[in-house]
Amino acid sequence: MIPFSILDLAPVAEGFSVADSLKMSVKMAQTAEQLGYARFWLAEHHGMAGVASSATSVVLAHLGAHTKEIRLGAGGVMLPNHSPLVIAEQFGTLAELYPNRIDLGLGRAPGTDMMTARALRRNMDANVDSYPDDVRELQGYLSDQEKGIRAVPGWGTNVPIWMLGSSLYSAQVAAQFGLPYSFASHFAPDQLHQALTIYRRHFKAAEEGDQPHAMAGVMAVVADTDEEAQYLFTSALQQFVNLRRDRNRPFPRPVDSMEGIWSASEKHMVEHMLQYAVVGSKATVAFQLERFIEATGIDELIISMPIHDADARLKSLHLMAEVREGLVGEVREEMVGEGD
Fold this sequence. Notes:
The protein has helices at residues 18-34, 56-65, 84-97, 114-119, 131-142, 168-177, 192-202, 226-244, 264-273, 282-296, 310-339; strands at residues 4-8, 39-42, 71-78, 102-107, 161-165, 181-183, 214-222, 278-280, 300-304. By secondary structure, the protein is α/β, with parallel strands linked by helices. The chain has one domain (4-339): Luciferase-like domain (TIM Barrel). Strands 1-2-3-4-5-6-7-9 form an eight-stranded parallel barrel, surrounded by eight helices. α7 links the parallel β6 and β7. α1 (18-34) packs parallel to α11. InterPro entries: Bact_Lucif_Oxidored, CmoO-like, Luciferase-like_dom, Luciferase-like_sf. It comes from Marinomonas posidonica (strain CECT 7376 / NCIMB 14433 / IVIA-Po-181). This is Luciferase-like monooxygenase. One of its GO terms (molecular function) is oxidoreductase activity, acting on paired donors, with incorporation or reduction of molecular oxygen.
C-alpha cells in the first residue's frame, strides 16, 4: 500500500488562539509519527484568520524539535513570495538541524489576496514565466555546485524539492525538472487526471534511475459513524463558504445542518471543489480511498483533516491509520491468494 502523509494548515479553530493551534500541530505531528505516517507538511498562507502556518519554516523548526523521525516539509512554500536564496537558507538550516527529514514543496500562487501579496513585497510585475528560473536558482543554492553566491546554510544540503500545484502548468514544470509532484485535488479537483497523465508522460529523469513520483491530496474526516463524520465535516463546508463570501474568520465549529447557511449555488460550488473528500466511518473511508487510489494510480496520498475539535482530529488521525493498515492487510491477502 502507498504511503500516507499529512498536510496541516495549523488551523486556528473558532474559540481558540494561534498558540492553541500551534500546540495542536505539535500533537498532530507527534501522533502522525507514532502511527507511521510518512510526512507531515505545512502550507504557507498569509492573512487568513483560520491558518497559523504563514511562517512555515519557523513552525517546521518547532515541529522538528518535538519529533524524531517523521519527514517534515512545506506543502508548500509559495516561491514567488520570496527570494530563492532566502528559502535556500531557511530550508538549508532546517536540513542541518534535522538531517534527512526535510522536504521543500514549492508552489507559484501567492497564497493570499493581492493586497497582502504586495505587503509581502512580492514583485507583482514579475512574469509568471520566471517561476522555472527561480526553481533552478533555488536548486543551485541547495546543491554543492559553485554558483558565485553560496547559501549558508543550504549549500550542499540537496533538500528534496517537490513541485506542487492544481494546474497543468505545475505538472509540466515537474515533469521537465524530473521532480516529484503533488496535485492539490483536495480543493482543486478538475484537472487531477489530466495533470497526472502529463506529468508521467513527459517526465524527464534528472539523474539516472529517477522515476516519476506522484502524490495527490484529499480532505478526510474519519469518525465512528458516517453521521458523526458528516457533522464534523460541516466545519470545512462553512470555511469554503466563508472564503467564497470573502469572510476572513477562524475555522468554524460544526453545525447540525448546512441548510440556511449556504445558497444552492454555494452548495454546488463547494461540493464540486470537495468531490474527492473522504468522509465517514472507517469502512466508508476505506471504500472511498480504494477507488481514489485505483483511479489515480498515485504513489503517495497526502491528507488534510479539517476538524474543529482537537480530540476528534486526533481520533481521525488514528482511525485513518487503521484504515491504511486494513488496506495493507487486503493487499497481503490478495498476494497470498495469487500465490496459492
